[in-house]
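Question (not urgent): is this output format expected?
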Amino acid sequence: MRVLVVGGAGYIGSHAVKMLRETGHTPVVVDNLSRGHRQAVPDGVPLYQMSGGDMEPIQDILKRHAIECVMHFAAFAYVGESVEQPLAYYQNNVAETIRLLQAMEAVGVERIVFSSTCATYGEPARIPITEDLPQEPINPYGRSKLMVEKILADYAASHPQFSYAALRYFNVAGAARDGTLGEDHRPETHLIPSVLLTVLGQRDRIVVFGTDYPTPDGTCIRDYIHVEDLCAAHILVMEQLRPGKACIYNLGIGRGYSVKEVIDAVQCVTGKAVPVEYGPRRPGDPAVLYADATKIRTELGWQPQVTSIEEIVETAWRWHMRHPTGYGS
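Got this back:
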């Protein structure tokens, strides 16, 4: 299948491009490179440096490459930043997606796989989180993603041939197991790469926010899904889309690891001590969040292959050792 990957130079998008090629599909990348990296796009894959909301150029690309499906990864995704700059988040995550959909409509592309998030659930009433729980996001980032989910549903209701998937991610982590791709955010806020950067001496310490949660070791617990398992789910879902079909799935491994467990795993994998500072809880951090991914497992047979936190960390460490300063190494 010929696939336009919007945000294909970013962390998740670049891994999806790699896997699309490996599974016989033909990816084309659109990325404005504001948060992605040209080096993450393989040689031979067309890369157009522009926004996914640039309607006329996107229409031209969709026609020129006879695109059959769009994978949409382009988004701002920092919760704190979304609170400080809500208009930027609604502009980038919602308005740009509307224009992308308008470009698709203009040329008759009727399949899209959309990156949503567990942040649409807000602070759920029960754990594990199933897809039927109320979506009550507590920050502009989560609300922007939920808005797009609703837009997709409304558009699908008026276009019987249109099909879409909204995949609600939990904590995406790790790197390509062959060491060719990894995680390079500026600034880096994700826990695993932040701890690895501390090991590499690029940060003085890692700050643990809260040690008095009602969890076995007192620190927050989160569901970490390996980036390649996540991308495999995207391709599996894409291949199952049919006219008029909507797919809503959680993507997580169905269990959680605590902040202390992640730090211990990094120390085990790297053989190096991690300097840690313990601080107070951050407002709005639930004690435990992890997915119930039974739906995608049952309906599509998806199974995550990398589920131990040590193996996830090991893949990330392999890339960080080769790229200690990211793609600029």
